[in-house]
Records
---
Amino acid sequence: MLRLITLLVAMTFSTIASAEPLASWADGPTKTAITAFVTAVTTENSPNFVPPPERIAVFDNDGTLWVEQPMYTQLAFIIDRVKALAPEHPEWKDEQPFKAVLAGDLEALQASGMDGVTKLLAATHANMTTEEFERIAGDWIASARHPRFERLYTQVVYQPMLELLDYLRANGFKTFIVSGGGSDFMRPWTERVYGIPPEQVVGSQIAMRYEVQNGTPVLMRKPEIAFIDDKAGKPVGIQRHIGRRPILAFGNSDGDYQMLDWTTAGAGKRLGLILHHDDSEREYAYDRESHVGRLDKGLDDAASKGWILVSMKRDWSQVFPAIGTTGAQP
Amino acid sequence: MLRLITLLVAMTFSTIASAEPLASWADGPTKTAITAFVTAVTTENSPNFVPPPERIAVFDNDGTLWVEQPMYTQLAFIIDRVKALAPEHPEWKDEQPFKAVLAGDLEALQASGMDGVTKLLAATHANMTTEEFERIAGDWIASARHPRFERLYTQVVYQPMLELLDYLRANGFKTFIVSGGGSDFMRPWTERVYGIPPEQVVGSQIAMRYEVQNGTPVLMRKPEIAFIDDKAGKPVGIQRHIGRRPILAFGNSDGDYQMLDWTTAGAGKRLGLILHHDDSEREYAYDRESHVGRLDKGLDDAASKGWILVSMKRDWSQVFPAIGTTGAQP
């Protein structure tokens, strides 16, 4: 009986704790703008009211929901896969872009261009079934660690963003990822980590071919890019997949510019947000000059477009979740 | 006060009425198979239990959720659009496939082949923004009528299927359309008619281009087919859009064969259903020889694949909704 009471008390406290929305957002104009927007669109009989089915919120992933420095996580995955597969491919020692990957020569890798990307995709993302790729990507994400923070990649997601996703969903929003990363690279873990199911992940995609192998249908991943969900591709991806215009968009780089513009140009109340990485101590500080997640035009235009620049340093009281909490489970 | 009581009583009765699931399905093995499947996958601690997020159900549209005879509704839309636009295009009188459409010559239209389809799409589905197309398609569907039943097309949807969609959703399923028809042709009305929101509509798609016109971002529809969601394209569309394999698929033609095969080949309990149009009195009777919605291989293989052949004549006590009821509102 005492155990039961203890459990009930613990549950009550945990409910209270999680009922405090946006706990890791510092009090100030950013947090106020977010809550004011949500209040406005969810208040019935208000001129800004938006019915729940139209409460679509879209989030970039790399640099918005999780760390994208020192390199996109999907590139870290590619490098690890090339290393793992290298023993079966002795020819890679002398063949670009594999040689560059194996030598850790990122400059030579970059020099290999689109041809290099296609070869890497073919070797690491294609010529296998969708289920094989899902298993490989899922296994990797369960064990690979971020080089600086020495945490699983699913533990270098941003605590304030997890809270924002929860807060929006609690207010009747449907949350989507709209990322330049590969849909099928994200889908094995987005539900567990972000509470975003596979069908709400819009990303870049490679071509697939349906085949029946010995009576068993499979989807083979082809070494061809079918869709790039970045820059002007993001509004296209949103229309193809979601079929209506979001009312809230959150990004962090110029790759998100068109998604923000498309979202906030719609009629009625809209919210556009850009995460500004200005915290080298707790995470990274980069914008106009960065090769990864460059933010230049967005920084120039945010004020005139009415987009909110979120300062990681000023607006977030905590960056990463405590290990072992929801969302950061391996 | 009496008014209030009357209202409450009315609400109670309407709740009871709508609580009777699958009311238009005749008692018999088909209805039993559906309810047994749903019970099996929703019973916790049963070996067949499927957690709610994985309860994905996919439905073909033409001939499965609504009438597809004597021609696909989207073709009726194209013909009406060509007629409406003809005064601005005097040259169409002598130019195929427009000449065939204006003369009602379906044979000549068919003879114009893929080149004809592309020209018709360009004239009726493209070279406009997504919002313009949505308005045109939405206006048309609000007024065009089926030639035989003289009802709006949204009123020649199948009442038993509306009930099945409701029943599945009440049991934690997420319902998707996976159709060869155009996503953007269906999305303006699927939520109102089927309770399926735009983001759960997977269909064929034309290419789009993001543009900023005088400072306003738009998505221009290009006269190019980007994706055909039919036959072997259906499992591809499911993977691209939903990212996991459904546990229930419902179709009516050989265009749904691969979707059914992909769905039911997955591990665990699965359900595949094919609507057999065998009711010329209340609707239409067609299968192996039909140009529209041909069902041939599916008819041969249903038994060996374990797919249920739903007989419209035997299994449905009612075909269309009463005018004015939910789902059939114009």
---
Amino acid sequence: MKKKTIDVCLSPYLYPIYHKDDSIVVVIDILRATSAMCTAFENGVEKIIPVATIEEATEYKKKGYLVGAERNGIALDGFDFGNSPYSYMNDKIKGKTIVISTTNGTQAIDAAQKAYKVVIGAFTNITAICDWLDSQNKNILLLCSGWKNKFNLEDSLFAGALTERLLKKSDFQLSDSALSVSYLYKQAESNPYKFLRNSSHTERLASMGLKHDIKYCLSLDKTKIIPVLEGKYLVRLS
Amino acid sequence: MKKKTIDVCLSPYLYPIYHKDDSIVVVIDILRATSAMCTAFENGVEKIIPVATIEEATEYKKKGYLVGAERNGIALDGFDFGNSPYSYMNDKIKGKTIVISTTNGTQAIDAAQKAYKVVIGAFTNITAICDWLDSQNKNILLLCSGWKNKFNLEDSLFAGALTERLLKKSDFQLSDSALSVSYLYKQAESNPYKFLRNSSHTERLASMGLKHDIKYCLSLDKTKIIPVLEGKYLVRLS
């Protein structure tokens, strides 16, 4: 049997180059969109509508939805949440359909919407997503959201962590980018927080006083839920 | 004084995202276009016209130019060279203007043609290019040609090698991608050939019997020449 492959797409802008009809796409935006989405589900949200633009977010807000909207790391005025995971540890989202628009993560979901299947990955659900991916007989594409279509360190680091865990389960064939993020992860493994202190995005968040968020987003297995895209909704994978 | 920056663009497709008006762009296609171009200059070529398409290459051939044309690692029939550096160790190119079209490298040059300055980098001219870059008061963008717009290991490795050498000379500010390729290089430094054996592209070339080429392309400082783009020509930087 041909080995399943793990490939890594390092920017949403490159997604059309990496798209394969039969791959499961894992969207990654560690700081902080996909971490926040996992937290929202763990805190009882029913569905999330990820939208790429502020205009769409505003339309949903007018219709009465609870809406999270963030650009450049800052929660936008007039909305209910930003993209801090802590803002979704909140009883008022329980059982609700909420809307989220962020600088990078929701753009990546948008880019991958024609994939065979799109799931949401973060350190906070890494074991669940690793076990599930390994149980599927599909090629895997890890899609890093990056920062405004540029490479970023934290998403690549997670892609490496997931690749390394998958390799402990099965014998996948790695692309060059998958090999590269695996090497990256091996160097960071002992202390990812310290490793990321060198990252431009981490510096940006830290200068906004968000160290607390960063530490949360690097913590493992806060939930067993895997958000999956069904039409325009993210729902729990059942 | 603000620190100069080193950024790394991991695919020609991403070039528009990384373009800055004042950056020097180093185009990198280690296996084998930029290595071959350095070799051609070292062997006396006067100018190289890099062209993106086979059609352009064919037009030049009809006009009587010596033309190198390669796709998917294979020299195309009806042309004078492929992109093996060894094919340019050849007296008949001395003093001539030749034309080269390759799968990745000449596409990357094409993508960056509006940059402030475009130079050609390879392990075979690494010391020359490092010294020159350090002498310029400009930001630096290392443009990896990759493989058909996908990330590849060997170009990233060179970007990391050059970044590490530049850091030994001056205090540059690194982007996330520059940090990442530096980490990659540190893992490969003791034996880049062995490291690259894991690379999909290296496997592809090795299966074509091109180990000899790979070893040459990883050898340091075969020339002091830095090819630079002037209009449609690559010439020696003076």
